[in-house]
UniProtKB/TrEMBL annotation:
<feature type="signal peptide">
    <location>
        <begin position="1"/>
        <end position="37"/>
    </location>
</feature>
<dbReference type="InterPro" id="IPR029058">
    <property type="entry name" value="AB_hydrolase_fold"/>
</dbReference>
<dbReference type="InterPro" id="IPR052897">
    <property type="entry name" value="Sec-Metab_Biosynth_Hydrolase"/>
</dbReference>
<dbReference type="Pfam" id="PF12697">
    <property type="entry name" value="Abhydrolase_6"/>
</dbReference>
<dbReference type="InterPro" id="IPR000073">
    <property type="entry name" value="AB_hydrolase_1"/>
</dbReference>
<feature type="domain" description="AB hydrolase-1">
    <location>
        <begin position="47"/>
        <end position="269"/>
    </location>
</feature>
<protein>
    <submittedName>
        <fullName>Alpha/beta fold hydrolase</fullName>
    </submittedName>
</protein>
<keyword id="KW-0378">Hydrolase</keyword>
<dbReference type="GO" id="GO:0016787">
    <property type="term" value="F:hydrolase activity"/>
</dbReference>
<dbReference type="InterPro" id="IPR006311">
    <property type="entry name" value="TAT_signal"/>
</dbReference>
<keyword id="KW-0732">Signal</keyword>
Amino acid sequence: MRLNRPARPSRRSTLLGVTAAVGLSVAAVTLPGTAGATPPQPVRPTIVLEHGAFADASSWDAVVPRLQRAGYPVVSAANPLRGPAGDAAYLRSVLDHIDGPVVLVGHSYGGTVISQAAAGMEDKVKALVYIAAFLPDAGESSLGLTNKFPGSTLGQAIESVNYTLPDGSQGADVYIEQDKFRHQFAADVPKDKTRLMAAGQRPVAAAALEEKSTQAAWKTIPSWSLITTEDLNIPVAAQRYMSHRAHAHTTTIDASHAVSVSRPEAVARIVEQAARTVR
């Protein structure tokens, strides 16, 4: 009996089979940086909040959780309120202990402090945000800018307390009188809240408001500004003048000087706008 031998595969079919097998193997391999790789995550700068005069870090309490929910690390820094040079040096010591990029936010007199603290720190501080704040140039003081335009009634609402330190140095601290605090500082904040704010307000050294700035970081760092039209501390005309001069991205809102307390969502929104530009 003669058996039939199985047909030998042609050279063409053999090559096709090898090619198909190789193709499957290649398809199963994921090369670095291709479809299987995790896309780069956006940079999340640390938001550093600097309070102003007649307030403390708690003035950011309603802003902080909004920024944290958006994924930003937040530091609500203490402000000694003793003078731009010393306060800026203190703030720089805080910034020195933060890794990565920073968005620096200042309210009121805190704007004077961040303008000086961030000078020369462009590699770290990527954006400045001014919330109802001063944006002084070198040679200007907070008090001088307030008096440059009409509209502030702060001088009629404050009281000064003289002090002598153990080393013999003397000075004066300035407060807002408690019965005038809500009208002057936070007219759109509930009364119960403003009573707490008035009782716990941090005084500012009178000399701090008169001390002239020596540097202006807004000249080299992108800036954002929130202008408050119902502000009785810093005249709205002064805020507009400073914001325009700094070429700041400007938003205007009908709010009192205590806008971080009365309108925290608006404050958080403008801070996030600045933070999203950090690459």
